[in-house]
UniProtKB/TrEMBL annotation:
Pfam families: GSHPx (PF00255). Coiled coil: none annotated. InterPro entries: Glutathione_peroxidase (IPR000889), GPX_CS (IPR029760), Thioredoxin-like_sf (IPR036249). One of its GO terms (molecular function) is peroxidase activity. This is Glutathione peroxidase. PANTHER family: GLUTATHIONE PEROXIDASE, PHOSPHOLIPID HYDROPEROXIDE GLUTATHIONE PEROXIDASE. It comes from the Eukaryota. Belongs to the glutathione peroxidase family. PROSITE patterns: GLUTATHIONE_PEROXID_2, GLUTATHIONE_PEROXID_3. GO terms for biological process: response to oxidative stress. Keywords: Oxidoreductase, Peroxidase, Selenocysteine.
Amino acid sequence: MLNYTQLAELDRQYRDRGLQILLYPCNQWGQEPGSHEEILAFAQSFGTTFTVFEKGDVNGSRTQPVFKYLKSKLRGTLVSTIKWNFTKFLIDRRGQPVKRLGGFTPPIHMVDDIVSTDIHGVLVPMETFRGRVCLVVNVNYTQLVELDRKYRARGLEILGFPCNQFGGQEPGTPEEILAFVATFGVKFRLFEKADVNGEHTQEVYRFLKSRLEGDITWNFAKFLVDRHGTPVKRYEPKIAPFEIEADIEAALAEA
């Protein structure tokens, strides 16, 4: 079920880490009338390199076996029927279907879909923070420590991403950064140093900027992400963490 642009980006970012994207063209909604060769040529125009299977049905008596199986494991809203192209199924390394996303949900649709490396070199799925309000910052320690102390128990998760793109303010190694932040009493999660602009933009920031547009202008930019993994507000560096407490309170109050 096809949606090429973002899938090509996901393939570029995650293929070497083990992601395999499998595409099944379907013409049950009249969107894939072409031959297999025409479909391949169209897909390749987006820079795709992943596997494209033969065109087939995803509903009805001629449903392809793979979709028959997936729908038996992960039903949609009320029914198992696929309602439109671009439906997506996520399958883990053991071959178990773990998540189903509807046709109108883009492949990269919330921060939960991203895996990042923390400052200790550990891979951290962003879905770890599902159900919590996240404040993503590149970073400003003093007031953030106070916000963390005040709101952590109520569901706030502060995620710090050190960045050395602005005036060389984070030149240190992970060990040096950890030693420095310890002087402020930092207890919130820190991730590995990364770019927030340009070709090598870290995946979390690539996603956040796609939803709340514009390059980061300096360190200390902040993004507020709700309990469902959706970015809801962006704050420029000059806005101090204490100035956004009302928005944090409002986000924490929402179910």
